[in-house]
Amino acid sequence: MLYAPPVPSRAFAWPRRSLHPSQAAPVQRPELRAVITFIALEAGATVRRCAPRHPATLCLRRTSVPTSKPTLPRATPPRTRRRSDAPTLLDVARAAGVSEMAASSALNGGRRGSARVSTETRERVLAAAEQLGFRPNATARALANRRTNAIGFVANFLGEEPNLYFLEVFSGVIQGATAAGQTTAVFTLNDWAEAPARLPALCDGRVDGLILLGPRLQDDGSAWLPRHTPMVSVQADRSVNGAVNVESDDESGAHGMVQRLLSMGHRRILYVAGPSDLSGPNLRVHGYMRAHAEAGVKPAAGHVVRAPLSIEGGREAMQDWLRRHRGRQLPQAVFGGNDAIAFGCAEVLRARGLRVPDDVSVVGYDHTLMARWVQMATVRQPLHELGRRAVEELVRRIDTSHQGEPHAGPSSIVLPTEIVPGATLAPPRRSSLTIT
């Protein structure tokens, strides 16, 4: 163990006698040993081992007290750029035999040309840049062009289960951004309640626009959302001021699936919908009810329940419903408000020894990877297309804003859904089952 002597009153004026470990503070970190030893040697002290009973101790002893002021460390000369560093615009200009301004003009004009330089000069600059491996400074270019060519993607990804819906929309965003020559920055929120504080901070110029995935705002944001940053929302729970919303037709999707179930002969259709405080799940309930009304079939009593949009939410809702309806007829079909809910319901049914779809059909909504993996019958939302279209609309709005023109596009873009048949859907069994 190394022991450091107490800090002296004068720089490097160590006591003439050796310091015993009992008079010093122990230093555990090896790197500090090297530093203290170096300082001691610079001050003219000797470094030796202490008594054998302290084999790990270094003691410092001054051999003489300096009469002059300690020598200050020499200032480090300014670092010059090594030739192995990235080449600069000045390097390109020198290699091409032109000024920096001419080189900048040629590079910014690209191969399409610039009115400020000749074709011969431009080609010479481009050749020099290619030979040197020059890459323009993105930050400087963004400042000059007032555009970063980056878009932000804001979502609440937190939760105990991976949200496959969000991930598939995000995949479409990445593809759309790549096709548009944009980079993508991901910003996560713990909860949409913090949006009034977080979103304005993201509009500081780091990105040209924002895509909000499934925002659940308390208001339309007109009082706190910056107007200089274009925004697009995907499946917004309510309209966002100044933003176009890209969404799928929730009401039509649920209507189509219930219509399919009724046409196959199902009458007792349990619908495990999403939370009642969200507009999307409510629209799907409207579709469920409209399909029954159009078919002249009265929905079975108590056959619409609510649950969180998760596997665990579906599992708990199914268990609770079966417990409350013990001794009554089993539903002929279970319609999950999304694929995760449907998956949780199917788990509970199979755990009770029921066969899907021989005893009860189970269908979902979204057509996520989970549904495709188990070949679940579901309503297909164009998740990938939602993300891609959101990028297209955002880039269009950024271009319009950059040109100083008002945006005259639609406030909402609605994409159609479709029914996907699968291995979990079949006609109802002839004899009904009783819940035990």
Structure description:
- There is one protein chain.
- The radius of gyration is 35 Å and the shape is elongated.
- Helices cover 37% and strands 16% of the residues.
- Helix 6 packs across helix 13.
- Strands 6-5-7-8-9-15 form a 6-stranded parallel sheet, covered by helices on one side. Strands 11-10-12-13-14-16 form a 6-stranded mixed sheet, sandwiched between helices. The chain has a two-stranded antiparallel ribbon with strand order 1-2.
- The N terminus is likely disordered.
- The protein contains 13 helices and 16 strands.
- The longest helix has 20 residues.
- It is of the alpha/beta class and 436 residues long.
Q: Please write the string of helix (H) and strand (E) elements.
A: EEHEEHHHHEHEHEEEHEHEHEHEHEHEE
Q: Based on helices, strands and strand pairing, what is the structural class?
A: alpha/beta
The fraction of residues assigned to DSSP E strands is: 15-25%
Average per-residue pLDDT, rounded, comes to 82
Number of distinct helices:
13
Biggest sheet architecture: 6 strands, parallel
Give the strand line-up of the largest sheet. 6-5-7-8-9-15
Q: Regions with pLDDT < 50 over 5+ consecutive residues?
A: 1-29, 38-67
SS elements, strand count: 16
Report helical residue fraction. 25-40%
From the alpha carbons, calculate the radius of gyration and give it in angstroms. 35 Å
Q: Which shape, going by the Cα principal axes?
A: elongated
Distance between the termini: 73 Å
Short description:
With 436 residues, this protein is of the alpha/beta class. It has helices spanning 30-42, 89-96, 100-109, 119-132, 138-145, 164-179, 195-202, 250-263, 279-295, 311-324, 339-351, 369-374, 383-402; strands at 2-4, 25-27, 45-49, 58-62, 150-155, 183-188, 209-213, 231-234, 244-248, 269-273, 304-306, 333-336, 361-366, 377-380, 412-415, 418-420.
